[in-house]
Amino acid sequence: MLKPFSIRRSALALLSASCAFFSSVAISPSQAAVAGDSAQTTAPWWQHAVFYEIYPRSFKDSNGDGIGDINGITSKLDYLHDLGVDALWLTPCYPSPQVDFGYDISDYCAIAPEYGTMADFDRLVAEAKKRNIKIIMDFVVNHTSDKHPWFLASKSSKDDPKRDWYIWRDGKNGGPPNNWQSLFGHSAWKLDPKTNQYYYHFFYAEQPDLNWRNPELKKAMMDVASFWLKRGVAGFRLDAVGCLFEDPQVRDNPVLPGTNAFGDPNTEFKYNDHYPEVHDVMRELRAVLDNFAGADHPVLIGETSGSDVKAISAMYGANLDEIQLPMNFFFAYLNKRSAAEFRKLIAQWDANPAGGWPLYFFSNHDQIRHYIRYGDGVHNDAIAKLMAAMLLTIRGTPLMYYGEEIGEENNDPKKVEDVFDPIGKIGWPKEKGRDGERTPMQWNAGEHAGFSTAKPWLTPPESYRTHNVAEESKDPHSILNFYKSLIKLRKEGPFKSGQYEPINTSDPNVLAYLRKDENDNALVALNFSDKEQDFKPLDANGKPIGILALQKVLLKSDTGSGDTKDWYQGDDTIKMPAFGVFIAKMESLSKQ
Ligand code: GLC
User: Fold this and answer.
1) Ligand 1 pocket check for 239: Cβ under 6 Å
2) How do residues 147-170 score in pLDDT, each as one tens digit?
């Protein structure tokens, strides 16, 4: 059964709906041509890399306290290398009161004691490097913790030199300055009784927003970036980057019909999202990264929330000089297993107006895991393979979420008393929070899924007994081994950077496309339906791509049965099992 999106997901979607209002970056056609030239041989490393998100608290516990840590990650680098991933994005592991599980930072330039030491971190970077794996840090640019020394100073008095590092305003008519709401529920303003002013927080009240219009603050943040780049990190995932600036006049946001999961009136995020000044800051940050240029030029991945093509595309920068890989949430928000919908979304982003290189993902620490979102309860493993095949063969950089390679599913809290994530407490039962998608990585079928010797901070789902690394490593037909084959495949031939050319575009069941570069062509056919399909691939001229054009079947799924029958029929038709995957190398189309 498809699980409906929680209200939190709708709130994020709403956020994106407002993006169009402010985004108007013009893209020059010449820049678009350069960026679109995917066949260039000097493509930067991040275009070919497979990225893998790790939630450190939940990946591997090395010291038996039930919480994952840096040394735990280091101990699993061989596994990650064997899987084939090239770069790890670590969600925040800095000192933090953990109100938002690390997204409330109290020191940007240190490692939280519960996750280890700076020496452990340096060892992780060095050991990862030995295995050609890069480390990407999460850079929370929009806000700090309310316990950060900067905020404590800012709050201490109206005259403090750091007062202006945050957004302070007088109240209005005995209440907050305006109707802006926090994405995490209720007013986005909190009164500080001592100085009798309100501070702005787009997320929790414990996460005051920084004022990027203050030059000293901006410099301090750029210094943070340099600090980590000097330690050898290969870039950043910029948290909530669209929310960096707000309307200086703090005008009320338009009110929409209805109420949200927190019982507040719905509002459009018109005056506090994707404000144009964000582009200036992104260019400056890119310039900081440019100081570390070379073969391994660092990368910026942006949490540019939403699904507004124009707004997210603008985050590449008018001269492709801002975020190299803005995240679109197209797949994350699509709660429907539909060939037609995916075809539309891929086509949209493949032709994004900036001509920027695409990044795709299904799941992360804020989204219900896609094993559950797309699973039908009967063919879940086959569907997980189908989705993996799409993610890893379309044109663009894939971003995986730890555990998706073993078919890890959500384990949402059953009672409000069990909830850790504050939005699950505020929004229960409509909003259960994000604990469900953050449960421990499932390493084996033993106690605590092999994650820890102690009771883990969150409980893995029961399915860990079958869906875990140890069991799946032994099974040639497992989801894990399918991911490994796909990752290996995408490092070769046209999957790396070849063009994406959709075929049979009116087929409601089979999503199919060609990947082409000067040397290679490949056909990918993905059966999104639960029925066997007779699929006849056609080229751009409507001519069947027959068996003669296929040199070699590169990969096909067994849909769990181990069946290896030859799918190609006599009449240029491929018999595709329910949720089947068929990938074949083709002879050059010009030779046909
Ligand atoms: C981002 C993070 C999310 C966090 C929020 C506030 O959306 O992905 O986990 O709660 O920012 O920092």
Assistant:
1) yes
2) 999 999 999 999 999 999 999 999
| Catalytic choice (53, 273, 303, 520) | 303
Phi, psi of 369 (to 5 degrees): -60, 140
Q: How far apart are CA 301 and CA 46, in angstroms?
A: 10
Enumerate residues 6+ apart whose C-beta is below 8 A from 545.
503, 523, 537, 538, 539, 572, 586
What is the 239 CA–ligand 1 centroid distance (Å)?
A: 6
Token digits for 11? 């709130």
CA distance 577 to 565: 10
Residues of the chain falling short of pLDDT 50: 1-40, 559-564, 589-592
pTM tops 0.90: yes
Closest CA to 45 of 103, 150, 132: 132
First to last CA, the chain: 44
Q: Which residue has the tokens 């350069």?
A: 34
- The alpha carbon of 104 is separated from its chain's Cα centroid by a whole number of angstroms, namely 19
- The Å distance, Cα 237 to ligand 1 centre, comes to 11
The whole-chain average pLDDT of the chain stands at 90
Is 206 close to ligand 1, i.e. is its CB under 6 Å away?
no
Rounded distance, CA 409 to CA 462, Å?
9
140 lines ligand 1 (CB under 6 A): yes
Q: What's the rounded Cα separation, in Å, for the pair 381 and 318?
A: 42
How many CB atoms neighbour CB 54 within 10 A?
27
Please give, one letter per residue, the 3-state secondary structure of 396-459: CEEEEECCHHHCCCCCCCCCHHHCCCHHHHHHCCCCCCCHHHHCCCCCCCCHHHHCCCCCCCCC
- Which helix (H) or strand (E) segment holds residue 169: the answer is strand 168-169
Closest CA to 51 of 387, 341, 404: 404
303 is catalytic: yes
Is 239 catalytic? The answer is yes
272-328 pLDDT tens trace: 988 899 999 999 999 999 999 877 899 999 999 777 899 999 999 999 999 999 999
